[in-house]
Amino acid sequence: MTAQKIAIVGLGKIAKDQHLPSISRHDGFDLAAIASRSASGLDVPTYEDLETLLKSEADITAIALCVPPQVRYDLARLALEHKKDVLLEKPPGATLAEVHDLIRLADENGCVLYATWHSRHAMGVAGAKAWLAGRTPTSGRITWREDVKHWHPGQKWIWEAGGVGVFDPGINALSILTEIMPVDLHITAAELTFPENCDTPIAADIDFQGPKGFAMKADFDWRQTGKQTWEIEVETTDGTILLRDGGATVLIDGKEVSSDEALASEYDGIYAHFADLLASRTSDVDLSPLVHVADAFMLGKRVTTEAFYDEQ
Amino acid sequence: MTAQKIAIVGLGKIAKDQHLPSISRHDGFDLAAIASRSASGLDVPTYEDLETLLKSEADITAIALCVPPQVRYDLARLALEHKKDVLLEKPPGATLAEVHDLIRLADENGCVLYATWHSRHAMGVAGAKAWLAGRTPTSGRITWREDVKHWHPGQKWIWEAGGVGVFDPGINALSILTEIMPVDLHITAAELTFPENCDTPIAADIDFQGPKGFAMKADFDWRQTGKQTWEIEVETTDGTILLRDGGATVLIDGKEVSSDEALASEYDGIYAHFADLLASRTSDVDLSPLVHVADAFMLGKRVTTEAFYDEQ
């Protein structure tokens, strides 16, 4: 198999920490170019923007878009118009309607479109899905509390309209939830807490409902210092499953279960799946995590809290 | 053809003003029962709630849900579980996820599910769609300004989370827009104005973008006294179309165009379409207007304005 020539657009924290190492570890991909205003010191051709890159690097077949969601649509459309296969960082767009439009364009142009949800590739997720498949959930909780200053230092876009705030990590929990749950849930109530100087929430409390009286609560908070918590717990009529550490660890009825998978990282899982999608010429765009986020904003009560300052 | 035995659930303003008269005018429907806590003086059997109605009226085949969106899901699910065909007032739900769930359940149970958008049945909409079909839109505007105190007196639910505020009329404009436009649009920015004592916005300014530089703005406002304005204007490379009076009147390049249709009301159009769907056993659930509303809430900047009081 010839390696796919891939380009990265947007060389921010996530591209440097995750995409570059995972691409370099996968034999199926050959990093051929980067479009970024700030790239330097890399041994691949670098361009100011995607348009210039596409003109100069005609043999690139795939584009990984690692830019913030507010500017992703125009770049994705440009790549698809040039008949490139496209990988989207999460969330796949700032709106649902723009992703619906990208799905249609990819389909028309015969391109593969892949909306990634990196947390679905955490070690315990596949096992949790299999365990829950035969069971009846009765209740559950999500606790997703982290320190935004540690994980998103200086990232202004997360506080600007369209940046979705605490749903940026929260959507990771929702991407796991929608993957593992054997029934469909919807939000019945939400309370979103906005710092008085920000356009996106710093915390959210969400009530979910499912069939036969199933109910669960999600607690997303970006103000957690000290121990960080990323947990999903689901009680069923036949035992309780707890995903800890963002899905990396699984406990069933309190006992830790070892995983058979041995991926080096969630992003290795993403690129392994992207290689499969490219080989079978199949798109994979599951919008259900973003639908829950949009629903929470549409349905949610808003409360205002003290101003947030990144540097203190 | 035997008339379909239909029941109305929720006898509020919209049921009394629109559903009852349109059902009585349509030969294909026979109003057989009503579920409402406040119904009286009607010559059909009336029940406290849908559950009681379903137990007593086994031969009813269709249910029209005219309750507020916050409580619609549980009732729709109950009706579908009893294998009834279901008509949903707009918006079809308080969240997108719950409507996705209803679509699946209707499909599983072989029921017809119809998410109505009454403004799509305004006189000028079909003609506007046909006129735009062969043209390239370049820009547009929506101006949807009305007096909430006149149209929604005492309706508390519109100000409660999930009631969507000014998007309650605004979604009528969006339902026309998504019906007539030959291209797909998405929201790029929004500003939502919340009264300081309300959980839903009283005004919204929205920017839409489409292919090839197409841009349009929507201005929704519930504080308009005096003349009421419900207009959609689209400029194309080959003329301009203006829908006035909520789609009842159409002007092309400034000249009023007469309509061939002669429906007595938008809701007559709804029940005519519902009869067609029942005859062909087909569902019709287009979520695109509600997707735009959810996108506006997810992407929108919030500003706070003076408190709103219904009675003054």
From TrEMBL, chains A, B:
Residues 5-114 form the Gfo/Idh/MocA-like oxidoreductase N-terminal domain. It holds the Pfam family GFO_IDH_MocA. Coiled coil: none annotated. GO terms for molecular function: nucleotide binding. InterPro entries: Gfo/Idh/MocA-like_OxRdtase_N, Gfo/Idh/MocA_oxidrdct_glycsds, NAD(P)-bd_dom_sf. Gene3D superfamilies: Dihydrodipicolinate Reductase, domain 2, NAD(P)-binding Rossmann-like Domain. PANTHER family: BCDNA.GH03377 (PTHR43818), DEHYDROGENASE (PTHR43818:SF7). This is Gfo/Idh/MocA family oxidoreductase. It comes from Roseibium limicola.
